[in-house]
């Protein structure tokens, strides 16, 4: 009640902050120099002794800011590894209050937040004048503002008081995920730049001649504008010839300067953008008796994509004026920044910046969404950091309504396209809800995961508004939103204020619907789904249908040859609790039916995932050609029941998780039995027979992993136990990032111990040979749980015999033809594997016009036998060479170049010719295709 009372009282008073700013751009040094005068009026009932200030350019000062930490948490390392020249800051501040020096105290934990201590307390209804010079080093545009090439996006650039409202002060650091909250006031801004820069800015340009020229330029066709001609005739080819981005090839700055004067009343922010190559479009928007100037600014190379941008802006102004309330400003503008595959934008009063490469409907939707923010946050100025849905969710609703009214929905064409959802975001949201990994709509921006920020705030917030429309009816909903707009324009509404306004306007209680903003439940009740068959897969209407999918399937191994058949499964999104997959494959070489199946039941919770599963496989693992040419195939039947318990952090943003996995491998293997002698009149032959053995191996795996973007790691303890042995192995992996995204060095540490569960004899050692620890990456025979894919699992010679798996010591060289291979032990073993990308600074291959997936690797290890007195091979062994990885490191080829003497002697003895070819090894690592390895945001 107290919270709601405070929120409802927010309209009773509101602080006012007016600005007068003079600023100059040094485009070569990429700096701003300016003077700021602030008129701060205290309308609160409280006497203020200090004022919190935002110095958001300091968010780019170092890698220890809240901005930097959040980027890392969301998987972005570009700023963390940025050069010092790309970072930014604000300094040379000298605050005075009413011409009296004032103490300015930096916050101890936030470099971009500080307190201005007032020399004299500021009483209610009083106004003070705050002045300061400032100097700003502009950052590269990592987030919303800065520079890109020789274009400038000047946003969140001046010292700005934090909001003081009925809830108190709201100081906040700058964040990439999470927007703003600022006081209303008037802006009087002068901007000095080199003469040939075109400026797009908030508010109204006061220089009459400059405004006349800008409008005249904007009415010209883009093709005849001087900037387009300059780019087309010379700069375009220069950029292509020099292999430089277009925005880095610009005409030189003019030696003369110009000063432009802007005014903007009743706003809470001011932004401006500068380029020497802007193309301009201009027209007017008629709203009743009001005429609004409309501009778009974009780059010459984006002319075709943005040819309809001005019309989209005008359509947006008409739409929002009709649905919410008339646009109160005299100008509206849109600016295109860098082209990005991910459509996005950021709104500022009367102007918006877009960063996208789309055109047509997608551009229309994004432009209108950003133009709509002039109403939702620009005029209805909620606290975006704490209640982002009030502008983003509401605006998404209006964007969807605009698009649905303007464009006729067309059916997808193509076999695959027809199986995709009409609304991908809704499907992903319901998937997260099923996994208990979604978050409430009304929650602070920084508390949300990156995925939930989009799905909960934007998508679910928009769905909630749609439900409100359905509850009230469209006509009553529209009139209620008009009432909300009229009541709260140029103010700071809270969620309770919105609720109160809607209920008063509609005379309908929305308590139940309102409470859904604070829960993680679905907005729509679950319905009973019908079973339906489909081909391949289907993600369409999964709220109505439980699909049984039929799809062709195939496979290959050396013994079975090509395998063809079919697969039936029920995997879809959202995930079912019970999932199954069954495949039947006919082997064209062995002439037998093989197959695979998996059945699982999962229990999802916010902090855990419990899965009971059983899987089975059947295929051939060896073959033998009899004396008469007949082939004998040896089959594996494998059944694996398992229980997996995965534990997540209570904070969904955390990336660390624990997994406890218990498996039982029930293996029925066919192998060589006794040989029968067959004697003919001319010769004697041996005929191989098969025998079948069943083995049960229990496996316990305890692992912890953290797929954070910077220095991710995982560690696991695996214990395998059979009838006569037990082996324990610890594996730790750590990734050291380079500056370049995705590049770095991997380090893997393995330590293992082998135990006999029965008395150790020569016989028992031989029987347990395949279970022993090995310094070399195990071959197919040593993959005793059949967990990896081997093409020729039991090959003894040829290229297929050189396949290894990532386990144990994982050396790339070995001595498999020796009776006692080097590095194989029934005691203990330790190894360190390192592999990584060649740094660009020393990579001779970077001069190539294409990229080669070449890395370097090195291994060092030791084992118990190396420390015995009769060992002559050295206590520590090593190898190193070149690694080639493709398809997200699922297929890897290793070319050892240097290795220990014991390995050199082996290759000289057994392979005096073509030695290099016999040292090459390769591996498949299909674990790399797991969804959460392909995309770290997948919360499994």
From TrEMBL:
Indicate which residues the UniProt annotation says bind Zn(2+): 369, 373, 392
Q: Which UniProt keywords apply?
A: Metal-binding, Zinc
For this protein, what does the record note about how its cofactor is bound?
Binds 1 zinc ion per subunit.
What's a Pfam family this protein contains? Peptidase_M1
Q: InterPro entries, per this entry?
A: M1_LTA4H (IPR034015), Peptidase_M1_dom (IPR014782), Peptidase_M4/M1_CTD_sf (IPR027268)
A GO molecular function annotation here is:
metallopeptidase activity
Q: Which residues form the active site?
A: 370, 458
Q: Which coenzyme or cofactor does it need?
A: Zn(2+)
Start and end of every Peptidase M1 membrane alanine aminopeptidase domain?
319-515
Q: What's the protein name?
A: M1 family metallopeptidase
Q: Which organism is it from?
A: Ilyomonas limi
């Amino acid at each position: 009640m107290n919270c709601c009372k405070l929120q409802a009282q927010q309209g009773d008073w509101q602080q006012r902050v007016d600005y007068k700013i003079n600023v100059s751009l040094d485009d070569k040094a990429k700096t701003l120099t300016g003077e700021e005068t602030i008129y701060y009026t205290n309308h609160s009932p409280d006497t203020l002794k200090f004022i919190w200030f935002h110095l958001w350019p300091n968010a780019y000062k170092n890698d220890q800011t809240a901005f930097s930490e959040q980027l890392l948490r969301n998987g972005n390392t570009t700023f963390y590894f940025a050069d010092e020249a790309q970072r930014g800051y604000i300094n040379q501040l000298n605050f005075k209050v009413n011409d009296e020096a004032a103490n300015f105290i930096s916050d101890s934990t936030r470099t971009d937040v500080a307190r201005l201590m007032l020399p004299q307390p500021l009483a209610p209804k009083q106004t003070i004048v705050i002045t300061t010079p400032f100097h700003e080093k502009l950052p590269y545009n990592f987030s919303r503002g800065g520079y890109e090439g020789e274009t400038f996006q000047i946003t969140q650039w001046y010292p700005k008081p934090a909001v003081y409202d009925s809830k108190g002060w709201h100081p906040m650091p700058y964040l990439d995920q999470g927007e703003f909250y600022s006081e209303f006031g008037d802006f009087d801004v002068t901007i000095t730049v080199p003469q040939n820069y075109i400026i797009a800015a908030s508010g109204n340009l006061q220089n009459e001649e400059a405004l006349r020229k800008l409008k005249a330029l904007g009415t010209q066709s883009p093709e005849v504008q001087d900037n387009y001609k300059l780019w087309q005739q010379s700069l375009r080819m220069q950029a292509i010839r020099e292999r430089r981005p277009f925005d880095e090839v610009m005409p030189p700055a003019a030696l003369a300067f110009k000063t432009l004067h802007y005014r903007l009343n009743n706003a809470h922010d001011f932004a401006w953008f500068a380029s020497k190559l802007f193309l301009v479009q201009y027209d007017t928007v008629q709203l009743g008796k009001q005429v609004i100037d409309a501009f778009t600014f974009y780059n010459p190379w984006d002319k075709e994509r943005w040819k309809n941008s001005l019309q989209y802006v005008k359509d947006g102004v008409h739409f929002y004026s009709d649905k919410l309330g008339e646009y109160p400003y005299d100008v509206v503008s849109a600016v295109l920044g860098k082209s990005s595959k991910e459509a996005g934008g950021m709104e500022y009063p009367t102007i918006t910046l877009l960063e996208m490469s789309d055109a047509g409907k997608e551009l229309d939707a994004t432009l209108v969404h950003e133009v709509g923010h002039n109403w939702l946050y620009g005029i209805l100025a909620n606290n975006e950091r704490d209640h982002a849905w009030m502008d983003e969710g509401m605006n998404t609703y209006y964007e969807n309504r605009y698009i649905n009214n303007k464009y006729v929905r067309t059916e997808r064409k193509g076999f695959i396209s027809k199986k995709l959802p009409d609304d991908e975001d809704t499907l992903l949201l319901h998937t997260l809800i099923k996994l208990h990994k979604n978050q409430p709509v009304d929650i602070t921006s920084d508390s949300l995961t990156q995925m939930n920020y989009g799905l909960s705030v934007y998508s679910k917030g928009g769905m909630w508004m749609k439900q409100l429309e359905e509850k009230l009816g469209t006509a009553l909903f529209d009139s209620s939103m008009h009432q909300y707009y009229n009541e709260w324009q140029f103010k700071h509404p809270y969620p309770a204020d919105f609720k109160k306004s809607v209920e008063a306007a509609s005379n309908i209680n929305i308590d139940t619907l309102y409470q859904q903003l604070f829960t993680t439940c679905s907005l729509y009740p679950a319905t009973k789904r019908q079973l339906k068959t489909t081909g391949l897969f289907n993600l369409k209407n999964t709220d109505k249908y439980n699909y049984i999918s039929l799809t062709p399937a195939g496979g290959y191994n050396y013994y079975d040859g090509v395998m063809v058949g079919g697969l039936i499964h029920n995997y879809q999104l959202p995930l079912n609790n019970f999932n199954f997959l069954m495949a039947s494959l006919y082997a064209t070489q062995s002439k037998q039916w093989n197959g695979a199946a998996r059945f699982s039941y999962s229990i999802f919770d916010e902090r855990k995932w419990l899965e009971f599963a059983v899987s089975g496989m059947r295929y051939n693992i060896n073959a033998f050609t009899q004396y008469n040419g007949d082939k004998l195939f040896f089959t594996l039947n494998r059944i694996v029941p398992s229980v997996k318990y995965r534990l997540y952090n209570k904070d969904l943003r955390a990336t660390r998780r624990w997994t406890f996995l218990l498996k039982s491998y029930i293996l029925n293997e066919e192998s060589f039995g006794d040989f029968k002698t067959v004697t003919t009149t001319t010769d004697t032959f041996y005929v191989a027979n098969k025998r079948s053995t069943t083995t049960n191996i229990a496996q316990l795996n305890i692992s912890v992993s953290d797929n954070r973007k910077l220095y991710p790691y995982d560690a696991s303890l695996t214990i395998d136990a059979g009838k006569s042995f037990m082996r324990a192995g610890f594996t730790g992996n750590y990734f050291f990032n380079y500056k370049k995204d995705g590049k770095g060095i991997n380090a893997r540490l393995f330590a293992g111990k082998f135990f006999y569960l029965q008395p150790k004899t020569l016989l028992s050692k031989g029987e347990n040979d395949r279970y022993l620890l090995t310094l070399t990456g195990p071959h197919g025979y040593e993959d005793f749980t059949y967990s990896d894919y081997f093409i020729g699992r039991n090959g003894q010679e040829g290229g297929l015999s050189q396949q290894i798996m990532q386990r144990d010591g994982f050396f790339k060289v070995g001595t498999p033809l020796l009776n006692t291979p080097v590095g194989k032990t029934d005691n203990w073993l330790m190894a360190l594997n390192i592999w990584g990308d060649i740094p660009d600074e020393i990579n001779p291959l970077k001069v190539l016009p294409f990229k080669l997936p070449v890395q370097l690797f090195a291994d060092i290890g030791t084992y118990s036998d190396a420390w015995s007195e009769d060992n002559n091979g050295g206590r520590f062994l090593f190898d190193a060479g070149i690694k080639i990885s493709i398809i997200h490191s699922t297929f890897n080829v290793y070319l050892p170049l240097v290795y220990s003497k014991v390995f050199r002697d082996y290759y000289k003895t057994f392979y005096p010719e073509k030695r290099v070819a016999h040292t090459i090894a390769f591996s498949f690592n299909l674990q790399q295709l797991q969804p959460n390895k392909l995309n770290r945001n997948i919360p499994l």
